[in-house]
Amino acid sequence: MANGADLVGRSHQRASVLLRRWLTETHTPVAEGELRVRIASLSLRIDVVYASPTGAHGFGTIRVLDAEGEHVVAADPALLAAACSADARARSLPGAPINRPESGSLVEWLLHALPRREIDPLPYPEDVVAVARSLSNAAEVQRWLTSHVEERMLPEMLARGGEDRAACTADLLTRGVLVAIGLLGRRGVAHEEHLLAELARRLTALAERNPGVADLVEHWLTDPTLTDLAALNGSELRYRDESGAVRVRPVRFEVRNPLAPEPAEAPGVPVPELDGFTLRPIRVTGADGGPDVELVHRWMNREHVAVNWNQDWSLQVWRDELDKQVSGNHSMPCIVGRDGRDVGYLELYRVRPDKLASCYSYGARDLGVHIAIGEPDAIGKGTGSKLLRAVAEGLLAADPLAERVVAEPNVHNGASVGAFGKAGFAQVAEVGLAGKNSALMVFERSRE
């Protein structure tokens, strides 16, 4: 019979697994120290004792907070599972598979898993985890890494030939050797950064000797993101199969590639010329920020903007935010005018230093746009889609080396998604971000 300490340990283990998955699948930034997140209606404060480049974070106490931000109780895995399930459903559209009654929920998986003492809704390969738990020093790790690459990965890569690259990546890399590297790092057996560098060297040598795997290896070593499998967040998730049995059917998503070298610094954002509109970068002046800051603050506190941006902040907060933006080269906040008056707010940005960079395989000079039509009487007249088309074309003209302009409106904001579509953007994916699921909208440079 398990004693109380065993039960507490297993409870923390299960809660940690769920939390790691949620943080990864929502692309939530993690650093050592205190981390606060909100999952559905559940507010959490987490002591991050180990921040992992592969997502294998280590946690101390995971605390549930009350409305005043005070510690209530340690997070129970059942409560966390319910919150993750509610969060995933709320993030997705009502008609998505995850919201269909026949698809089941994460809570059903938990009830099914408890008697079996199952910890993870999408467990990693048992042999990979067992080996990683058995290694105790750097010499053993090096020997294992060499044999794993040569004797396991190479034969499977050759056998799969031209099979779907995303499937190969998930099966052999993100749910294979990177799992072991993350576990070894969390256990303190070896530094993940060193192991990732060693893996990269071995894969490079492997590709040189075996040209048939060179394309796949190059993808693993250079692309900014890699394919993984989600179990907690994704509109296509199911927790029951066609027979009604509890069985997690995961969905693919992209994660930051820990093997890729740090990309070169992206250039600043160009100032585009807009057909039919005027545009001016925002100026921050004086203690209160000046007229541009006041205008953005007023727009952001209007109901039709606040409901989608969730940035109905005070004037001082907006002053600090815009001052931070204009002082850097990641993004450029702008005021847009039409017919002689100011009508909207734009944030133009480079994707590489943005949160979106961990969500898709971006190009080095990809540009992005956030838009808010601030004046109510400019809404519903096609202003948004015309502006977005002008912005996309203007940005690509201003930076001839950029291949695309992207955006990430909330999937629930049908008007915004529709405006991007009318402007020539195509929805290529749904991506999880902290606080929302977004439609990844892409405007490609014409090849004509």
Automatic annotation (TrEMBL):
Pathway: Siderophore biosynthesis; mycobactin biosynthesis. This is Lysine N-acyltransferase MbtK. Keywords: Antibiotic resistance. Acyltransferase required for the direct transfer of medium- to long-chain fatty acyl moieties from a carrier protein (MbtL) on to the epsilon-amino group of lysine residue in the mycobactin core. Transmembrane segments: none annotated. Residues 277-446 form the N-acetyltransferase domain. Pfam families: Acetyltransf_8. It comes from the Bacteria.
